[in-house]
């Protein structure tokens, strides 16, 4: 077992033991050791996706990932890709399903895309969220 996994496992087990003596403002998170290990093996959206260039099949840059849209169930549903935005050209944001992006050799690709197609796609506009997302318990109903 690698040292960081051993430390994390020990901390998780210790947190479980201390669950009976909670201190105000301190509460162990409710996820399993298996889930914790999966998190350690995951990847960072900030380092792997945000502000990364998106290319087409001909290795031409068609935009940049500016944001990710999280669906009510907690999954990532779309990437917001921005084209333009340099040399006084206004940027044009579009939403593409996250599953339509390919990753090859650490680069992001949007197969079949061209700059003209990206700019011809209707612009994405953020919804005005009036309140925070609903709790998970309410989503199940």
UniProtKB/TrEMBL annotation:
Signal sequence region: 1-21
InterPro entries the UniProt entry points to: PRC-brl_dom, PRC_barrel-like_sf
Record keywords: Signal
Record-annotated PRC-barrel domain positions: 48-110
Gene3D superfamilies tied to this protein: PRC-barrel domain (2.30.30.240)
Protein name: PRC-barrel domain-containing protein
Organism: Paraburkholderia ultramafica
């Amino acid at each position: 077992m690698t040292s960081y996994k051993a430390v994390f496992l020990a901390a998780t087990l210790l947190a479980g033991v201390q669950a009976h003596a909670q201190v105000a403002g301190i509460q162990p998170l409710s996820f399993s050791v298996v889930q914790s290990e999966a998190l350690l093996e995951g990847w960072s959206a900030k380092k792997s996706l945000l502000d990364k260039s998106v290319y087409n099949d001909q290795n031409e840059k068609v935009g940049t990932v500016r944001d990710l849209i999280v669906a009510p169930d907690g999954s990532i549903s779309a990437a917001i890709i921005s084209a333009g935005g340099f040399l006084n050209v206004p940027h044009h944001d579009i939403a593409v399903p996250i599953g339509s992006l390919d990753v090859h050799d650490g680069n992001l690709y949007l197969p079949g895309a061209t700059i003209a197609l990206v700019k011809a796609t209707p612009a994405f506009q953020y919804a005005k969220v009036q309140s925070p997302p609903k709790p998970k318990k309410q989503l199940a109903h």
